[in-house]
């Protein structure tokens, strides 16, 4: 029989394995960015470089924020810019940009920018669920916000 503690550890390890496999090649750490648009462009560039998205996806994500406001700030210090699948997604993917100095995201300070790209309207559901579990842990978010490099971030997952 699995104790509650062991179940919790197994659940966390499963979350970590999934997040590490999704993010391992898609994490960049920067000291600072010019503004929130630069943050979106730089987080999108990670996915552009591995051909998960097209350039127009990044611009669509920026236009969404300009139109709808900072709805992409999903919790303290965390933003998740995104656009629609038809805006240029080649494969479902997630990137993480850590901005050490933070950036003002239309009135909200953000250090962690997760760019989400979904190829369709359902393939991202599991990614969102795992990301939600991750960012709900305030301690992990804080540690990730002060990480020195990609390896340190991966250790916190």
From TrEMBL:
Protein's cellular compartments: Cytoplasm
GO cellular component, one term: cytoplasm
One term of GO molecular function: kinase activity
Keyword match tRNA processing: no
Coiled coil location: none
One GO term of the biological process aspect: phosphoenolpyruvate-dependent sugar phosphotransferase system
Statement: the UniProt record of this protein carries the keyword NADP: no
PANTHER family according to UniProt: ASCORBATE-SPECIFIC PTS SYSTEM EIIA COMPONENT
Name assigned to this protein: Ascorbate-specific PTS system EIIA component
Organism lineage string: Bacteria, Fusobacteriati, Fusobacteriota, Fusobacteriia, Fusobacteriales
């Amino acid at each position: 029989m699995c104790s509650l503690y062991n179940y919790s550890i197994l659940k966390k390890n499963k979350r970590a394995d999934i997040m590490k496999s999704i993010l391992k090649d898609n994490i960049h750490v920067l000291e600072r960015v010019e503004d929130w648009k630069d943050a979106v462009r730089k987080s999108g560039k990670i996915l552009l470089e591995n051909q998960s998205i097209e350039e127009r996806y990044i611009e669509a994500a920026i236009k969404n924020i300009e139109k709808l406001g900072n709805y992409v700030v999903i919790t303290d210090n965390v933003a998740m810019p995104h656009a629609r699948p038809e805006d240029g997604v080649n494969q479902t993917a997630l990137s993480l940009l850590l901005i050490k100095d933070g950036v003002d995201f239309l009135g909200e300070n953000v250090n962690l920018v997760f760019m989400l790209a979904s190829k369709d309207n359902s393939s991202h559901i599991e990614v969102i669920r795992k990301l939600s579990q991750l960012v709900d842990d305030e301690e992990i978010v804080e540690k990730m916000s002060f990480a020195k490099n990609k390896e340190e971030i991966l250790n916190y997952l």
